[in-house]
Amino acid sequence: MAASVVRSLSLRIRLDPDLRVSSDDVLAAVLQEVDVDDVRCFTRVQRGHYQVTVRDTDVKEKLMLVGIDVDGRHFPCYSVKRERPNHHYNSVTIMMPYEMPDSCVTNILGQYGELVSTRRLTNRRHPSIETGVRLFRLKDVDLDRLPTLIQVDHYNMVVRRC
C-alpha cells in the first residue's frame, strides 16, 4: 500500500536582512493576522528567515494572501513547497549509561514501532562530549503502548516523548 501524501502547512517569511527585529516581533506580526491557536510552530531558520507551520490550509492561504507587517514594512509569506509521506514519526529520548549500546533499547522500542534512527546527543558548546541522552526516532509508533520506563539489567531508564 502506497503512503498518502500530506501537503506542507508551513510558510516561509523572508525579511530584509538589514531589518533589526526580534523573533518576538515577527511572531507578533503573524498573530496580528491569525489567531494564536492557528499557529502550530514558529521557528527562526536564520537571520531574517522564519518558518511558520499553521493549523490548516485555510490559515496558510490567508497568510499567503495578506502577508505580514513588521516594523512598518510589508512582507509576503511563501509556501514551503514540499510533500512528505504521511507517516507518523515520533521521537523519544532516554538517559542511558555511556557504555550501554543502543541495541539494548532498540530491541525493546522495536516492539512499539519501526525504528528509523538513533542519535547520541552532545553538549552544545563541546560537541565531542556526549550528554548521556539518546534520541530514538520511530515510525508509526503505538503511543498508547509505549512504556515510560525501560529496565535493562539493573538500570531503570525513563522514556520521554519529544
What does this structure look like?
The chain contains 3 helices and 13 strands; from the N terminus they run ββαββαβββββαββββ. It has helices at 23-33, 57-66, 103-109; strands at 5-7, 10-14, 39-46, 49-54, 68-70, 73-75, 77-79, 83-85, 89-95, 114-122, 130-139, 149-152, 155-161. A 5-stranded antiparallel β-sheet has the order 10-11-9-13-12, covered by helices on one side. A 4-stranded antiparallel β-sheet has the order 3-4-2-7, with helices on one face. Strands 1-8 form a two-stranded antiparallel ribbon. Strand 10 (114-122) and strand 11 (130-139) form a beta hairpin.
SSE diagram, text form:
Blueprint: E1 5-7, E2 10-14, H1 23-33, E3 39-46, E4 49-54, H2 57-66, E5 68-70, E6 73-75, E7 77-79, E8 83-85, E9 89-95, H3 103-109, E10 114-122, E11 130-139, E12 149-152, E13 155-161
Keywords:
single chain, 162 residues, alpha+beta, five-stranded antiparallel β-sheet, four-stranded antiparallel β-sheet, 17% helix, elongated, disordered N terminus
Low-confidence stretches: 1-6
Cα distance spanning the termini: 28 Å
What percent of residues adopt helix (DSSP H or I)? 10-25%
Reported for the largest beta sheet, the result is: 5 strands, antiparallel
Give the number of DSSP strands: 13
Number of helices: 3
Rounded mean pLDDT score: 83
Concise overview:
With 162 residues, the protein is an alpha+beta fold. The protein contains three helices and 13 strands, in the order ββαββαβββββαββββ.
